[in-house]
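Q: I'm building a small set of examples for a reading group on sequence design. Run inverse folding on the following structure and report the sequence directly after it, with nothing in between.
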Protein backbone atom coordinates (compact mmCIF):
# COMPACT_ATOMS: atom_id res chain seq x y z
CA UNK A 1 0.00 0.00 0.00
CA UNK A 2 2.83 2.39 0.88
CA UNK A 3 4.64 1.60 -2.35
CA UNK A 4 1.57 2.05 -4.55
CA UNK A 5 0.71 5.35 -2.87
CA UNK A 6 4.26 6.58 -3.34
CA UNK A 7 4.32 5.55 -7.01
CA UNK A 8 1.02 7.39 -7.49
CA UNK A 9 2.48 10.54 -5.89
CA UNK A 10 5.56 10.48 -8.13
CA UNK A 11 3.40 9.78 -11.19
CA UNK A 12 1.13 12.75 -10.43
CA UNK A 13 4.21 14.93 -10.03
CA UNK A 14 5.50 13.66 -13.40
CA UNK A 15 2.16 14.40 -15.08
CA UNK A 16 2.18 17.88 -13.54
CA UNK A 17 5.61 18.71 -14.96
CA UNK A 18 5.22 16.88 -18.28
CA UNK A 19 1.98 17.77 -20.06
CA UNK A 20 2.58 15.11 -22.70
CA UNK A 21 2.21 12.38 -20.10
CA UNK A 22 5.14 10.26 -21.27
CA UNK A 23 7.05 10.63 -18.01
CA UNK A 24 3.95 9.93 -15.95
CA UNK A 25 3.28 6.70 -17.84
CA UNK A 26 6.83 5.48 -17.26
CA UNK A 27 6.74 6.36 -13.57
CA UNK A 28 3.23 4.99 -12.98
CA UNK A 29 3.32 1.88 -15.17
CA UNK A 30 6.86 0.95 -14.26
CA UNK A 31 6.10 1.63 -10.62
CA UNK A 32 3.26 -0.88 -10.59
CA UNK A 33 5.61 -3.47 -12.11
CA UNK A 34 8.17 -2.70 -9.41
CA UNK A 35 5.52 -2.99 -6.67
CA UNK A 36 4.60 -6.43 -8.02
CA UNK A 37 8.27 -7.45 -7.96
CA UNK A 38 8.44 -6.79 -4.21
CA UNK A 39 5.72 -9.38 -3.49
CA UNK A 40 8.23 -12.30 -3.68
CA UNK A 41 10.40 -10.41 -1.18
CA UNK A 42 7.44 -10.16 1.20
CA UNK A 43 6.67 -13.84 0.59
CA UNK A 44 10.22 -14.83 1.53
CA UNK A 45 10.01 -12.65 4.62
CA UNK A 46 6.66 -14.16 5.64
CA UNK A 47 7.83 -17.76 5.24
CA UNK A 48 11.34 -17.34 6.53
CA UNK A 49 12.69 -20.03 8.83
CA UNK A 50 13.95 -18.91 12.21
CA UNK A 51 16.59 -21.63 12.11
CA UNK A 52 17.99 -20.32 8.84
CA UNK A 53 18.55 -16.57 9.13
CA UNK A 54 20.13 -14.56 6.39
CA UNK A 55 19.37 -13.68 2.80
CA UNK A 56 18.92 -16.14 -0.09
CA UNK A 57 20.48 -13.99 -2.75
CA UNK A 58 19.79 -16.21 -5.79
CA UNK A 59 16.02 -15.81 -5.32
CA UNK A 60 16.38 -12.04 -5.30
CA UNK A 61 18.02 -11.52 -8.69
CA UNK A 62 14.72 -10.94 -10.54
CA UNK A 63 13.20 -8.45 -8.06
CA UNK A 64 16.46 -6.49 -7.85
CA UNK A 65 16.83 -6.31 -11.63
CA UNK A 66 13.30 -4.88 -11.85
CA UNK A 67 14.10 -2.40 -9.05
CA UNK A 68 17.31 -1.23 -10.74
CA UNK A 69 15.63 -0.95 -14.15
CA UNK A 70 12.69 1.01 -12.80
CA UNK A 71 14.92 3.27 -10.72
CA UNK A 72 17.15 4.17 -13.68
CA UNK A 73 14.23 4.79 -16.05
CA UNK A 74 11.98 6.68 -13.62
CA UNK A 75 14.84 8.70 -12.14
CA UNK A 76 16.01 9.71 -15.60
CA UNK A 77 12.63 10.90 -16.91
CA UNK A 78 11.80 12.79 -13.71
CA UNK A 79 15.33 14.00 -13.07
CA UNK A 80 15.44 12.80 -9.47
CA UNK A 81 18.19 10.87 -7.73
CA UNK A 82 15.72 10.14 -4.95
CA UNK A 83 13.34 8.31 -7.26
CA UNK A 84 16.27 6.51 -8.89
CA UNK A 85 17.49 5.09 -5.55
CA UNK A 86 14.05 4.48 -3.99
CA UNK A 87 13.27 1.03 -5.57
CA UNK A 88 16.70 -0.37 -4.75
CA UNK A 89 16.67 0.89 -1.16
CA UNK A 90 13.10 -0.33 -0.56
CA UNK A 91 14.00 -3.79 -1.88
CA UNK A 92 16.96 -3.89 0.51
CA UNK A 93 14.73 -2.93 3.45
CA UNK A 94 12.36 -5.83 2.65
CA UNK A 95 15.10 -8.47 2.88
CA UNK A 96 15.20 -10.94 5.75
CA UNK A 97 18.16 -9.46 7.58
CA UNK A 98 19.70 -11.06 10.62
CA UNK A 99 18.79 -9.81 14.07
CA UNK A 100 20.27 -6.39 14.76
CA UNK A 101 21.00 -5.58 11.09
CA UNK A 102 17.62 -4.31 9.91
CA UNK A 103 17.56 -1.14 11.99
CA UNK A 104 21.01 -0.22 10.70
CA UNK A 105 19.80 -0.71 7.13
CA UNK A 106 16.76 1.49 7.81
CA UNK A 107 18.83 4.27 9.38
CA UNK A 108 21.31 4.21 6.49
CA UNK A 109 18.48 4.15 3.91
CA UNK A 110 16.69 7.10 5.53
CA UNK A 111 19.91 9.15 5.62
CA UNK A 112 20.71 8.38 1.98
CA UNK A 113 17.20 9.31 0.81
CA UNK A 114 17.27 12.53 2.85
CA UNK A 115 20.64 13.50 1.37
CA UNK A 116 19.56 12.86 -2.22
CA UNK A 117 16.30 14.74 -1.53
CA UNK A 118 18.38 17.77 -0.58
CA UNK A 119 20.54 17.23 -3.66
CA UNK A 120 17.46 17.11 -5.90
CA UNK A 121 16.16 20.36 -4.42
CA UNK A 122 19.41 22.16 -5.22
CA UNK A 123 19.41 20.89 -8.79
CA UNK A 124 16.05 22.45 -9.64
CA UNK A 125 14.50 24.82 -7.13
CA UNK A 126 12.26 26.60 -9.65
CA UNK A 127 9.07 24.84 -8.52
CA UNK A 128 9.58 22.83 -5.31
CA UNK A 129 5.89 22.43 -4.43
CA UNK A 130 4.99 19.48 -6.74
CA UNK A 131 7.96 17.42 -5.57
CA UNK A 132 7.60 18.19 -1.85
CA UNK A 133 5.02 15.49 -1.01
CA UNK A 134 6.62 12.54 -2.84
CA UNK A 135 10.04 13.59 -1.58
CA UNK A 136 8.94 13.65 2.06
CA UNK A 137 7.03 10.40 1.65
CA UNK A 138 10.07 8.75 0.05
CA UNK A 139 12.35 9.73 2.93
CA UNK A 140 10.02 8.14 5.51
CA UNK A 141 9.19 5.02 3.46
CA UNK A 142 11.90 2.80 5.06
CA UNK A 143 10.64 3.66 8.55
CA UNK A 144 7.01 3.00 7.60
CA UNK A 145 7.99 -0.27 5.95
CA UNK A 146 10.00 -1.61 8.87
CA UNK A 147 7.19 -0.58 11.27
CA UNK A 148 4.70 -2.60 9.21
CA UNK A 149 7.04 -5.60 9.20
CA UNK A 150 7.43 -5.29 12.95
CA UNK A 151 3.64 -5.41 13.41
CA UNK A 152 3.58 -8.37 11.06
CA UNK A 153 6.11 -10.16 13.25
CA UNK A 154 4.05 -9.37 16.34
CA UNK A 155 0.92 -10.89 14.78
CA UNK A 156 2.82 -14.00 13.67
CA UNK A 157 4.27 -14.39 17.16
CA UNK A 158 0.82 -14.09 18.71
CA UNK A 159 -0.55 -16.65 16.25
CA UNK A 160 2.23 -19.08 17.12
CA UNK A 161 1.63 -18.45 20.81
CA UNK A 162 -2.08 -19.27 20.36
CA UNK A 163 -1.21 -22.47 18.52
CA UNK A 164 1.29 -23.44 21.23
CA UNK A 165 -1.27 -22.69 23.91
CA UNK A 166 -3.84 -24.86 22.14
CA UNK A 167 -1.35 -27.73 21.88
CA UNK A 168 -0.43 -27.32 25.55
CA UNK A 169 -4.09 -27.31 26.57
CA UNK A 170 -4.69 -30.49 24.56
CA UNK A 171 -1.66 -32.13 26.19
CA UNK A 172 -2.83 -31.12 29.65
CA UNK A 173 -6.32 -32.46 28.87
CA UNK A 174 -4.89 -35.79 27.74
CA UNK A 175 -2.78 -35.94 30.90
CA UNK A 176 -5.83 -35.20 33.03
CA UNK A 177 -7.84 -37.91 31.27
CA UNK A 178 -5.00 -40.40 31.74
CA UNK A 179 -4.73 -39.47 35.42
CA UNK A 180 -8.46 -39.82 36.01
CA UNK A 181 -8.60 -43.17 34.22
CA UNK A 182 -5.57 -44.40 36.16
CA UNK A 183 -7.03 -43.33 39.51
CA UNK A 184 -10.47 -44.76 38.75
CA UNK A 185 -9.40 -48.09 37.28
CA UNK A 186 -6.43 -48.52 39.63
CA UNK A 187 -8.62 -48.16 42.70
CA UNK A 188 -11.36 -50.52 41.52
CA UNK A 189 -8.95 -53.13 40.18
CA UNK A 190 -7.03 -53.12 43.46
CA UNK A 191 -10.25 -53.63 45.41
CA UNK A 192 -11.40 -56.41 43.06
CA UNK A 193 -8.03 -58.15 43.34
CA UNK A 194 -8.21 -58.11 47.15
CA UNK A 195 -11.82 -59.36 47.14
CA UNK A 196 -10.98 -62.23 44.80
CA UNK A 197 -7.90 -63.14 46.85
CA UNK A 198 -9.97 -63.19 50.01
CA UNK A 199 -12.64 -65.29 48.33
CA UNK A 200 -9.95 -67.77 47.24
CA UNK A 201 -8.68 -68.11 50.80
CA UNK A 202 -12.17 -68.49 52.29
CA UNK A 203 -13.44 -70.96 49.71
CA UNK A 204 -12.02 -74.14 51.38
CA UNK A 205 -13.28 -73.25 54.88
CA UNK A 206 -16.24 -70.86 54.54
CA UNK A 207 -18.11 -71.10 51.25
CA UNK A 208 -20.76 -68.56 52.20
CA UNK A 209 -18.18 -65.91 53.08
CA UNK A 210 -16.28 -66.65 49.86
CA UNK A 211 -19.48 -66.29 47.87
CA UNK A 212 -20.14 -62.95 49.57
CA UNK A 213 -16.71 -61.72 48.50
CA UNK A 214 -17.41 -62.81 44.92
CA UNK A 215 -20.64 -60.83 44.96
CA UNK A 216 -18.75 -57.82 46.29
CA UNK A 217 -16.20 -58.19 43.50
CA UNK A 218 -19.00 -58.23 40.94
CA UNK A 219 -20.41 -55.02 42.45
CA UNK A 220 -16.94 -53.47 42.22
CA UNK A 221 -16.77 -54.42 38.55
CA UNK A 222 -20.13 -52.74 37.92
CA UNK A 223 -18.95 -49.63 39.76
CA UNK A 224 -15.76 -49.51 37.70
CA UNK A 225 -17.73 -49.88 34.50
CA UNK A 226 -20.21 -47.17 35.47
CA UNK A 227 -17.39 -44.87 36.59
CA UNK A 228 -15.63 -45.33 33.26
CA UNK A 229 -18.86 -44.60 31.40
CA UNK A 230 -19.47 -41.45 33.46
CA UNK A 231 -15.90 -40.32 32.88
CA UNK A 232 -16.22 -40.79 29.12
CA UNK A 233 -19.54 -38.94 29.10
CA UNK A 234 -18.03 -36.03 31.01
CA UNK A 235 -15.16 -35.61 28.56
CA UNK A 236 -17.40 -36.04 25.50
CA UNK A 237 -19.85 -33.37 26.61
CA UNK A 238 -20.18 -30.40 24.26
CA UNK A 239 -21.28 -26.91 25.40
CA UNK A 240 -24.97 -26.54 24.73
CA UNK A 241 -24.44 -23.43 22.62
CA UNK A 242 -22.21 -25.44 20.27
CA UNK A 243 -24.76 -28.27 20.26
CA UNK A 244 -27.52 -25.92 19.15
CA UNK A 245 -25.26 -24.31 16.54
CA UNK A 246 -24.48 -27.77 15.13
CA UNK A 247 -28.19 -28.62 15.02
CA UNK A 248 -28.97 -25.37 13.20
CA UNK A 249 -26.17 -25.93 10.68
CA UNK A 250 -27.31 -29.51 10.09
CA UNK A 251 -30.90 -28.49 9.42
CA UNK A 252 -29.75 -25.66 7.15
CA UNK A 253 -27.52 -28.04 5.23
CA UNK A 254 -30.55 -30.30 4.73
CA UNK A 255 -32.30 -27.46 2.92
CA UNK A 256 -34.59 -26.16 5.68
CA UNK A 257 -35.11 -22.51 6.56
CA UNK A 258 -34.09 -22.44 10.22
CA UNK A 259 -35.26 -19.83 12.72
CA UNK A 260 -33.19 -19.92 15.93
CA UNK A 261 -33.69 -18.07 19.20
CA UNK A 262 -30.96 -19.14 21.64
CA UNK A 263 -30.47 -17.63 25.09
CA UNK A 264 -27.17 -15.80 25.59
CA UNK A 265 -26.45 -18.04 28.61
CA UNK A 266 -27.13 -21.27 26.72
CA UNK A 267 -23.84 -22.81 27.88
CA UNK A 268 -25.14 -22.65 31.48
CA UNK A 269 -28.03 -25.01 30.62
CA UNK A 270 -27.63 -28.71 31.55
CA UNK A 271 -25.83 -30.15 28.52
CA UNK A 272 -25.88 -33.67 29.99
CA UNK A 273 -29.68 -33.69 29.85
CA UNK A 274 -30.46 -31.47 26.87
CA UNK A 275 -27.56 -32.40 24.60
CA UNK A 276 -28.87 -35.89 23.71
CA UNK A 277 -32.38 -34.45 23.41
CA UNK A 278 -31.23 -31.86 20.88
CA UNK A 279 -29.43 -34.51 18.83
CA UNK A 280 -32.40 -36.90 18.88
CA UNK A 281 -35.04 -34.29 18.01
CA UNK A 282 -32.88 -32.88 15.22
CA UNK A 283 -32.52 -36.35 13.77
CA UNK A 284 -36.28 -36.78 14.14
CA UNK A 285 -36.90 -33.64 12.05
CA UNK A 286 -34.48 -34.79 9.36
CA UNK A 287 -36.03 -38.25 9.14
CA UNK A 288 -39.72 -37.55 9.41
CA UNK A 289 -40.31 -33.81 9.00
CA UNK A 290 -40.62 -33.55 5.26
CA UNK A 291 -41.20 -29.79 5.45
CA UNK A 292 -39.24 -26.70 4.54
CA UNK A 293 -38.99 -24.78 7.82
CA UNK A 294 -37.76 -25.47 11.34
CA UNK A 295 -37.57 -23.51 14.58
CA UNK A 296 -35.08 -23.91 17.44
CA UNK A 297 -35.67 -22.13 20.76
CA UNK A 298 -33.81 -22.35 24.07
CA UNK A 299 -34.89 -19.94 26.81
CA UNK A 300 -34.66 -19.60 30.57
CA UNK A 301 -38.06 -19.53 32.27
CA UNK A 302 -38.18 -19.05 36.06
CA UNK A 303 -36.39 -22.09 37.55
CA UNK A 304 -36.25 -24.16 34.35
CA UNK A 305 -34.75 -24.26 30.87
CA UNK A 306 -37.21 -24.60 27.98
CA UNK A 307 -36.12 -26.18 24.71
CA UNK A 308 -38.44 -26.16 21.72
CA UNK A 309 -38.01 -27.56 18.24
CA UNK A 310 -40.72 -27.28 15.62
CA UNK A 311 -41.03 -28.05 11.93
CA UNK A 312 -43.75 -27.87 9.32
CA UNK A 313 -44.95 -31.25 8.14
CA UNK A 314 -46.42 -32.66 4.99
CA UNK A 315 -49.44 -34.86 4.73
CA UNK A 316 -48.78 -38.43 5.78
CA UNK A 317 -45.74 -37.65 7.91
CA UNK A 318 -47.49 -36.94 11.24
CA UNK A 319 -47.70 -40.51 12.45
CA UNK A 320 -44.07 -41.24 11.67
CA UNK A 321 -42.93 -38.92 14.46
CA UNK A 322 -44.09 -41.33 17.16
CA UNK A 323 -41.09 -43.62 17.16
CA UNK A 324 -38.64 -44.95 19.72
CA UNK A 325 -36.69 -41.69 19.54
CA UNK A 326 -39.33 -39.62 21.37
CA UNK A 327 -39.94 -42.43 23.85
CA UNK A 328 -36.23 -42.35 24.66
CA UNK A 329 -36.36 -38.57 25.05
CA UNK A 330 -39.34 -38.87 27.39
CA UNK A 331 -37.57 -41.46 29.53
CA UNK A 332 -34.37 -39.40 29.70
CA UNK A 333 -36.21 -36.21 30.64
CA UNK A 334 -38.29 -37.95 33.31
CA UNK A 335 -35.06 -39.19 34.94
CA UNK A 336 -34.02 -35.57 35.60
CA UNK A 337 -37.52 -34.46 36.72
CA UNK A 338 -38.18 -32.65 33.46
CA UNK A 339 -41.24 -32.59 31.23
CA UNK A 340 -41.85 -33.43 27.59
CA UNK A 341 -44.73 -31.99 25.57
CA UNK A 342 -45.50 -33.03 22.01
CA UNK A 343 -47.95 -31.02 19.91
CA UNK A 344 -49.05 -31.57 16.36
CA UNK A 345 -51.59 -30.13 14.02
CA UNK A 346 -52.13 -30.18 10.29
CA UNK A 347 -49.19 -27.86 9.61
CA UNK A 348 -46.64 -28.11 12.44
CA UNK A 349 -45.04 -30.64 14.76
CA UNK A 350 -43.60 -29.25 18.02
CA UNK A 351 -41.53 -30.86 20.77
CA UNK A 352 -41.12 -28.87 24.01
CA UNK A 353 -38.75 -30.00 26.78
CA UNK A 354 -38.22 -28.34 30.15
CA UNK A 355 -35.53 -29.29 32.68
CA UNK A 356 -34.82 -27.81 36.11
CA UNK A 357 -32.16 -25.09 36.37
CA UNK A 358 -30.42 -26.92 39.22
CA UNK A 359 -29.06 -29.47 36.74
CA UNK A 360 -27.11 -26.77 34.96
CA UNK A 361 -25.89 -25.39 38.32
CA UNK A 362 -24.63 -28.78 39.42
CA UNK A 363 -22.78 -29.25 36.19
Amino acid sequence: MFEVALVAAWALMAFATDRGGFSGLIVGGGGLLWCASTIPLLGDYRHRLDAEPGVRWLRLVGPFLVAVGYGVAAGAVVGSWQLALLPIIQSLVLLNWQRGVRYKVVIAATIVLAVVAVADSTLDASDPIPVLVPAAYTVFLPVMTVTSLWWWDVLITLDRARASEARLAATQERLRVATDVHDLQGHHLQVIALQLELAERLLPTDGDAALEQLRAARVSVDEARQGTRDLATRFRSVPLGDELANARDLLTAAGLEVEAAIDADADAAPASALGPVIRETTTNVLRHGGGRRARLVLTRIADAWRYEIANDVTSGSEDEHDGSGLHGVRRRIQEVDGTLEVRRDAEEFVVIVTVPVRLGQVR
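Strands lie at 257-262, 293-301, 304-312, 339-344, 348-356.
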